[in-house]
């Protein structure tokens, strides 16, 4: 979410440019299955007095296939090892119920700080051409469903060498 975009839409430009560079997608689409490309996310309801319905608040892109694997490769090889305070994706405590909607969905989500955006090779080459770098959230959606889906999704991602740590909470 780019909070400054609520006052001026041009603040989204650096996020759009960065996501285009990372994903290889354009606003006209690309890829075989998903033709939306880099999309502008608009607010759905009024929140906190600064988000209004229809107001642009962020950018998203959906990647599949070869582009997704290229992104995962650069994330694991270049970005995660160079982040100072990143020890791994935090997992919930063991005592927490696995019957929650997150526990049976097969989706692994985590966020990275703004410094991580500048560590991607596609961005690092021309970092001075991006007026601002933004933090971002990633959602890895798998086809795992039911009891233990979260554990299977984490096992899949750990196969791509994404580290996980157990939360103490």
Q: Can you walk me through this structure?
A:
By secondary structure, this protein is of the alpha+beta class. Helices cover 27% and strands 16% of the residues. The strands form three sheets. It has a two-stranded antiparallel ribbon with strand order 1-2. Strands 3-6 form a two-stranded parallel ribbon. The longest helix has 15 residues, at 65-79. It is globular. The protein starts with 12 loop residues before the first helix and ends with a strand.
Q: How is the biggest beta sheet arranged?
A: 2 strands, antiparallel
- The number of distinct helices, counting runs of at least 4 residues, comes to 5
Based on Cα principal axes, name the global outline.
globular
Strand proportion:
15-25%
Widest sheet: strand order?
1-2
Poorly predicted runs are none
Radius of gyration from the alpha-carbon trace, in angstroms: 17 Å
Overall helicity: 25-40%
- How confident is the prediction overall: mean pLDDT? 79
Order of H and E elements: HEEHEEHHEHE
Distance between the termini: 26 Å
Number of strands: 6
The class by helix and strand makeup works out as alpha+beta
